[in-house]
Amino acid sequence: MKLALSLLLVTLALCCSDANAKTCPALHNEARSFLLDIKPLFYSVLKTFPAPEPAYHSTMAVKYCVDRMSFSDRHKIYDVVEAIVKKCNQ
Fold first, then answer.
1. Phi/psi at 79 (nearest 5 deg)?
2. How many CB atoms are closer than 10 A to CB 12?
3. What is the spatial distance between Cα 65 and Cα 58, in angstroms, rounded to a whole number?
4. Which residue from 9, 3, 51, 53 is spatially nearest to 34, judged by alpha carbons?
5. pLDDT tens, residue by residue, 12-69
6. Of 9, 17, 47, 62, most Cβ neighbours within 10 A?
7. pLDDT value of position 42
């Protein structure tokens, strides 16, 4: 649950900062994929961002931990993220 809280706080920081309140569609897609998609599908979304290979592997390790949560819990977290994104994009 600490991981989910961290993801939520990062999403809040990125989405609702005073400098730029509009969320990037790629960030929203990546957050949705991180929480709800299977690992191979998330990895294909992740590879759209240029990053060193160790960053991909560490992100996939965190994804493994998130996937151990029940799908209903992950979907509840995504619903909160989605509500934040909608509020920030108003």
1. -60, -40
2. 14
3. 11
4. 3
5. 666 655 555 577 788 888 889 999 999 999 999 988 888 899 988 999 999 999 999 9
6. 62
7. 92
Separation CA 84–CA 64 (nearest Å): 24
Q: E-strand spans in the chain?
A: none
The pLDDT value recorded for residue 51 is: 87
Eight-state DSSP code of residue 47: T
For residues 65 and 3, is the Cβ–Cβ distance under 8 A?
yes
- What 3-state DSSP class applies to 90? coil
Exposure of 72 in the CB half-sphere (CA atoms within 13 A): 0
Distances (CA, A) of 65 to 4, 54, 69, 78, 89: 10, 17, 7, 16, 30
Give pTM, 2 decimals. Answer: 0.72
Give the CA radius of gyration of the chain: 13
The tokens of 69 are what? 């949560």
